[in-house]
Amino acid sequence: MDNYEVHSDIPVMHFCEWCYATLNKDGICPTEGCIHNDLMDLKEEE
Question: Measured between alpha carbons, how far is 36 from 46 in angstroms, rounded to an integer?
């Protein structure tokens, strides 16, 4: 079977696993008070 590499100019969208909002480019959830941002802060502290 042939192997193909697929290239696309369309950026991949990432979604918050808690409120399903589209994450900002820096990985932060735009929803105010979302637990995603609190968990990101805890992860950075470790």
Answer: 16
